[in-house]
Specification:
Structural class: mainly beta
Shape: elongated
Number of domains: 1
Largest sheet: 4 strands, mixed
CATH class: Mainly Beta
Distance between the termini: 88 Å
Number of helices: 2
CATH superfamily: Carboxypeptidase-like, regulatory domain
Strand content: 35-45%
Length: 136
């Protein structure tokens, strides 16, 4: 019986995946599945406000590109930056919202895991601006 289990385990190790590596990412109580594709570098994550609640109206973009990134109602986002990182060595992903400090993260190809996935979670911090009145 031991030899039989060993043979099955060995066979499973060498089973060809044919570029269909599956990674499961859990957002809160939801599970999101990414499939490794030939031409993909996926950045994903969650955005929260300063008290830890999901932040759904944050502007997320990549500096010096026209790529717009949508944030869902749970504060989750996902973007494929394969084409952009083939043109440049480094990208800057920017998270901004009026009244909150803009957060920036540098992204290089070396930061991605073996499935070409990079997780960046952000906690936005309130920015206090004091406006003084010149006449008093």
């Amino acid at each position: 019986m031991k030899y039989f289990l060993l043979i099955i385990a060995s066979a499973m190790l060498f089973y060809p995946l044919e570029n269909k590596i599956k990674s499961e990412i859990i957002f809160g109580s939801k599970s999101v599945e990414f499939r490794k594709e030939k031409d993909s570098l996926i950045i994903y994550g969650n955005i929260k406000d300063n008290v830890g609640d999901s932040f759904k109206y944050v502007n997320v973009n990549i500096q010096n590109s026209n790529l717009k990134i949508k944030v869902n109602e749970n504060g989750d986002y996902k973007v494929n930056v394969f084409d952009l990182l083939n043109k440049k060595d480094e990208l800057i992903i920017q998270f901004s919202f009026l009244g909150f400090k803009t957060e920036k993260r540098n992204v290089k190809k070396e930061l991605f895991n073996r499935n070409n996935i990079l997780e960046i979670n952000i906690k936005m911090k309130e920015e206090i601006t004091i406006i003084e009145c010149p006449n008093g």
